[in-house]
Specification:
Keywords: Coiled coil. With about 80 residues, this protein is an all-alpha fold. The chain contains one helix and no strands. The longest helix is centred in the middle third of the chain and has 74 residues.
Length: about 80
């Protein structure tokens, strides 16, 4: 009878352990899902920032060309 009681206790402990593992796993999955959502949002923000930087870079390149053209035109002698 003592052996049966020990087996019953062991079984209950195993059931509790598995339940605890499932709860932990569920929390971990939820935490990971939340982290993924946050990272996706941040990635979207960074991509938007990158688009702005690229647009600014193109504008700077255009302005540089205009300045170089204006400088070249201003340094030409009137006889040219």
């Amino acid at each position: 009878m003592g052996r049966l009681s020990t087996l019953g206790s062991d079984l209950l402990l195993e059931i509790r352990r598995r339940r605890a593992q499932r709860r932990l796993h569920a929390r971990t999955v939820l935490d990971l899902a939340s982290t993924v959502a946050s990272l996706q949002q941040r990635l979207s923000e960074l991509e938007s920032d990158l688009d702005e930087v690229r647009a600014d870079s193109r504008r700077v390149a255009e302005l540089r060309i205009q300045v170089e053209d204006a400088l070249a035109a201003s340094t030409k002698s009137p006889l040219e």
